[in-house]
Specification:
The chain is an alpha/beta fold. The chain has a 6-stranded mixed β-sheet, with helices on both faces. A 3-stranded mixed β-sheet has the order 5-7-8. It has 11 helices and 9 strands.
Amino acid sequence: MPATDHLRVDLRADGALWLTFHRPEVLNAFSDELSVALAEQVEAAASDDAVRVVVLTGAGPAFSAGADISGQDAHERFDVRALDAANRIIRAVTSCPKPVVAAVNGIAAGVGCSTALAADLVVASESAGFLLAFARIGLMPDGGTSATVAASLGRARAMRMALLAEPLSAREAYDAGLVSHVAPDADFPEMVDTVVRRLTRGAPLAQAATKKAVNAATLHQLEPALERERTGQTILLRTADVAEGMRAFGEGRRPDFRGE
């Protein structure tokens, strides 16, 4: 399985496929190249008998800061294609019959948060955090988080996280039921290895059936959510507020939203 400049691919002898976001200079912000490569790798893993489990993680101090909206032309570059790429990743992760583990080694924001929370098990280092930052630039959450976060946290906490763009620490996320494991930073690699090892030694058919059943019971609104998010986000991307939000982000200032 080939690697790309933005995604490192490592299929290990135990059947664990490690997919490492590799843009540490921008906190692993999702580029078009990274998004496409990630979706392709997870889709391919679904039918690859050599793969027993898929592990998603980030290089450097972050899991992923979200979509790459750096640069003065961000508003022109970021369009519905980015939404479709994100949705393709979420569908690949949730439909993959192999267990998918998100090893969240640092901040998971925006689509990075969406991707992590689509995984079956989320192992977080204690210094990690989870942030739906969309509201800060005039957008709504996407990547299925209007379904995945509400399914885990309930409506009130999901609204707080989405509308106020308040981050959750790894410990808060664990206590709230958003992630499955949390470990002190020093113990994080060992915990990830332990979880992955248990999965690679598990019964593949039972794992696939379990994942399908649990997702059917808890994420039955995921597909409608992806479509609602795509429609809403497409409309918002045409607004002056989003243009202002992206400009403000690039300039490091507070945006002046006017409802336009």
